[in-house]
Design a protein that fits this description.
This protein is of the alpha/beta class and 469 residues long. Helices cover 32% and strands 23% of the residues. The protein has helices at residues 3-13, 29-32, 36-57, 59-67, 78-81, 89-98, 135-152, 170-182, 194-204, 213-225, 249-259, 282-285, 380-388, 427-438, and strands spanning 116-120, 130-134, 159-162, 185-188, 208-211, 237-240, 262-269, 273-279, 293-296, 301-306, 320-326, 337-343, 345-346, 358-360, 365-366, 371-373, 376-378, 393-404, 409-418, 443-446, 462-465. The structure holds zinc ion. The site of zinc ion has 6 residues, from loops.
């Protein structure tokens, strides 16, 4: 048996309830509620098979593994896992450039394979980085997304409008296949104008909306302007991904109030976690105050929380960089990939009964987006939470950081606007509120309603400026 066949057989051995949910609350109970020792054994068996498959079929990984003194069959315990070199996004750049279009890191380069679908990462001026999804991968994606949707309360017969971009985007297609697997009617709602989406909400009354928090806030505001009440539109469940907003308390509160719906957070990444790596449960949706906790799908991924410098594990319950091993994909079974996000995990039991660990506060922010202002560290989400917790301030805002190279310090300007013409705000009051929540003084600039454009998709609200003007 080839290493690829052995790997795929191991994946299939641990697939439970692939086509239909096992019960009314949890799709794959034997996996989602497995004792943690069972989960560990399952992860290790899959990881060991994935290692051998990568060794045999990926020239890029074989070279790295050999340099680390590892041979096929080397991964027998969790301690062995720690010997596998950590990979970062930048490690692939040269490989992409010298072996276009795929690079040699994917094991598909030398394995016979099925037809594929291509996904790429968004943005940036570089050439798009391309990732394939085989038929095996698409089937796994449908199953894993269906399990997450089941956790969000999505049920057969519901209509769902999927506002993710139906281009080479994993969020749109993963969720699409997941919705079909659950048995939902699907309205492909992206890309299209906000007014077109508002029409579909009114005409087709979907129970579920899927999109980035920015998209769903903008859509709700527009529905309101057009004379309808989003909270009476029939929407009951919001599935948010692509931005951290659903785990940012004030953004989450705004979404809940606007739509009168449960708000769920779903996270992953194109490179290594096309299926939901993070997914909330009903216990998180009903949890009121306090940080949102997001389960990590541990039968499909191995998640490690490491110190970003030393790459050693941080003490349980503390913050570190998120290093993920994919345990289900034929084309991207990458091991120990540093996603570049801060995360903090708890293994405390969840009232929902799942044993999968939870990310406290979701993804906490990108390692490289952490801002140092006046000696303190901030994530963009901290500003988002502070600004959106102020009543009457519109969803849109702008944060500008100005560096003073001579004085070696920086300052922050926050531009906000009232949410409507009949709302009056006071710059000094807002500055005092922000000083209270952030612990630093910021300059507040108030502009007229509508000055800051509405954002969709992944909103850009942070700007790093050279010097103040
Ligand atoms: Zn739970």
């Amino acid at each position: 048996m080839s290493s690829r066949d052995r790997y795929l057989a191991t994946i299939r051995k641990y697939q439970a309830n692939p086509d239909a949910p096992g019960d009314s609350t949890i799709w794959s109970r034997t996996l989602e509620c497995a004792p943690r020792a069972t989960l560990r054994d399952m992860q290790l068996e899959k990881l060991s098979a994935a290692f051998d498959y990568l060794f045999e079929c990926s020239p890029f990984y074989r070279e790295r593994f050999e340099r680390a003194g590892l041979r096929p069959g080397a991964i027998r315990s969790m301690d062995d896992v720690r010997r596998i070199p950590v990979t970062r996004k930048l490690d692939w750049i040269d490989d992409f450039a010298s072996h276009p279009p795929w690079g040699t890191f994917s094991p598909l380069t030398s394995a016979p394979h099925d037809p594929w679908m291509v996904f790429s990462t968004s943005g940036t001026t570089r050439q798009p980085r391309l990732f394939r999804s085989t038929q095996h991968d698409c089937a796994m994606l449908a199953w894993l997304c269906a399990r997450a949707l089941w956790s969000y309360g999505v049920r057969p017969g519901m209509a769902a409008m999927n506002c993710f971009y139906y281009g080479p985007s994993v969020a749109a297609w993963g969720m699409h296949h997941g919705l079909v697997r659950v048995g939902c009617s699907v309205i492909p709602g992206g890309p299209m104008s906000t007014d077109r989406r508002a029409y579909f909400v009114e005409a087709l009354r979907p129970s579920v909306l899927l999109g980035t928090p920015s998209t769903l806030l903008t859509l709700g505001r527009r529905v309101k302007e057009l004379g309808q009440d989003p909270s009476r539109s029939g929407v009951r469940i919001l599935v948010c991904a692509g931005e951290p907003g659903a785990a940012v308390p004030s953004t989450r509160q705004r979404l809940q109030d606007l739509w009168s719906a449960d708000v769920h957070d779903d996270f992953g990444c194109t490179e290594v976690a096309q299926a939901p790596l993070g997914y909330t449960c009903q216990a998180a949706a009903g949890a009121g105050d306090g940080p949102v906790t997001v389960h990590v799908m541990e039968d499909a991924f191995l998640v490690e929380v490491l110190d970003p410098e030393s790459l050693e594990p941080v003490p349980p319950g503390t913050r570190g960089t998120l290093v993920v091993s994919n345990l289900y994909s034929e084309s991207t079974p990458f091991l120990r990939y540093d996603m570049g996000d801060w995360i903090r995990l708890t293994e405390d039991p969840c009232p929902c009964g799942r044993t999968h660990a939870r990310a406290v506060g979701g993804l906490l922010g990108r390692n490289d987006h952490c801002l140092k202002v006046k000696g303190l560290q901030f994530f963009p989400g901290t500003f988002e939470d502070a600004v959106r917790s102020i009543e009457g301030v519109s969803d849109e805002y702008r944060i500008e950081i100005f560096d003073d190279a001579i004085e070696l310090r920086n300052s922050v300007r926050v531009t906000v606007q009232p949410e409507r013409d009949d709302v009056s705000l006071d710059e000094r009051e807002i500055a005092a509120r922000l000083r209270g929540t952030l612990g630093i003084s910021v300059e507040v600039r108030l502009v007229a309603p509508g000055t800051l454009p509405r954002t969709e998709g992944k909103g850009a609200r942070f700007f790093h400026r050279g010097s103040a003007s």
